[in-house]
Amino acid sequence: MSLKTFFIVGPTATGKSEIAADVAARCDGEIVGADAFQIYRGVPLLTAQPNPSVLDKVPHHLIGAVPLSEEMSAAKFRDLALNAIGEINRRGRRAIVVGGSGLYLKALTHGLAPFPTTDPRLRTELDTLSLAELNARLLAVDPLGAERIDRQNRRRLVRALEIFTQTSKPASVQRSQWAATPGNGDGVFVFRERAELYARIDARVEKMLRNGALEEVAGLGTIGVTAAKMIGLDAVRELLEEKLSLPECVATIQRKTRRYAKRQLTWFRQQPNFEALNLSLLKDHSAAVDWILQKVSLLSPL
Length: 302
Known about the structure:
9% strand; 52% helix; Histone, subunit A
């Protein structure tokens, strides 16, 4: 990537936002968020956006930037991020890209997978099929993809079948070929030992609900399909509708967030282009910032 960037990636609740802000402040950088839900406006608590004290340290981009009604994708994110990075570089500053949304990050480091655009007539035909029928069709044409995919996710099943129908090649094969291409971009993959990470997740969920996430969700207006997938939204709504108790709501969000973090860890461990940094082995926050700054200092000057 010819743009002047440094990536700090990893699972939720590792402390990426705080570390990145201090790194950016000391290397004349600005933050570009790479989180599929923190990009939305109006849900800073539910999406665990950086708090005001962190946001005030350096300029942040693509955090709370998009209305909840807007559909997002890796392609849209890539366009927004490249524009933000370009503007930062033109000011003579380095962009520090921070986040945990694997596909969004890979859209920046690898470009976009060469998949065909949606065919409206084919989409309409596939949308008439039941979940069982979609799974059966995918198993017949792409058994590897059927094994890996979330079989309850209609959108992903339909998209996989669209790709096969339009290209005559299984989507799983094409994704594997895309994943195998060398990535561009310098950066670090930060993580913590699982027990520590899960404890941080649990504490953050409790704090989020104490600090006003219920009121935040209660006041939301129109929400698009993409934003509606954010973790915790359904559970908080069920709490507000008295379908869940507060302890049940907390436990549900904690469980789903831990599962999400586990998927993120698996994803990033399979991406060899970033150096791994186990934050659990460092003595404190400052040690992590210093370690990462050493890596940034090795990059070509702006």
